[in-house]
Amino acid sequence: MTNEPAEVGFHIIPAMMNGIVGDLISHLFFVDEAIISRDNATIINMIQRMKNVFEKFLKIFQHASSLIEPSSFDRYRYFLQGFYPHGIIFEQARKCERSGIGDSGYEDIKVYLKGPSAGQSTMIFVFDKVLGIHHTGDAKAFQEEMVMYIPRGHRHLLQDLSRKLEKSGSLREYANTCNEDCPIKIEYNACLDAFTKFRKYHLAVASRYLAAVLKGTGGSDFRALLRCVIGNTEASRSAS
């Protein structure tokens, strides 16, 4: 769109992350079955695989500066702001009937959309749900808003996953039933530490690229938001 090198780098990073985690997501969707059956071997394997993913995410972000040159990003970031709060009018856009049947004509439609954000990544929603990380405050409100930006099929997956975990409990709840020296509790907390470390590094990278502004991509107050996310992740460690 802009021919800026930063445009390629900005989008290739989440693409690389999704490529790493793709196979794992399908297994995590069935974590409830392992919890209900107390299949500790499978549970430990899933936790260790998530920890490995977070460590790989960190390595990707450590190379961000070689993929996204700051001055190039400054020229590109304008296109990441979306159309909020003023909105944008799509002239003579096709009206859609809820039934999806028939041609309902055209009209001008004004929409209010925030730009792309890492907070719109389905895999992060899945990790939080499976690990039992409950966000509060700004982080909770932001996640609830961003989930409306992901594909409908992804939202249905998250809804199905939530229903399954309501019956089985999350990995955090399962780890909390174990003794202090239980391998599951140890592996779970190590996984949370790796996720926290990645999220802290994400904040450092975002601060470096957005040092001159208050708002991040997606129109978020990124510093306060990411600190809230980090705090909620740290607070989710399994109690001894």
How does this structure look, described?
- The relative contact order is 0.15.
- Helices cover 61% and strands 9% of the residues.
- Helix 3 packs parallel to helix 10 and helix 10 (183-209) runs antiparallel to helix 11.
- It is built from eleven helices and two strands.
- The longest helix has 27 residues, at 183-209.
In terms of DSSP E residues, the strand content is 5-15%
Q: Poorly predicted ranges (pLDDT <50, ≥5 residues)?
A: none
End-to-end Cα distance: 51 Å
Structural class: mainly alpha
The H/E string reads: HHHHHEEHHHHHH
Throw out a few tags for this protein.
single chain; 240 residues; mainly alpha; two-stranded antiparallel ribbon; 11 helices; 2 strands; 61% helix; globular
Please describe the topology of this protein:
Blueprint: H1 5-28, H2 31-36, H3 40-62, H4 64-67, H5 70-76, E1 82-94, E2 106-114, H6 122-131, H7 137-146, H8 152-168, H9 171-175, H10 183-209, H11 222-234
Antiparallel strand pairs: 1-2
Helix pairs in contact: 1-3, 1-5, 3-10, 6-8, 7-11, 10-11
Could you provide a short overview of the structure?
This protein has helices at 5-28, 31-36, 40-62, 64-67, 70-76, 122-131, 137-146, 152-168, 171-175, 183-209, 222-234, and strands spanning 82-94, 106-114. It has 240 residues and is mainly alpha-helical.
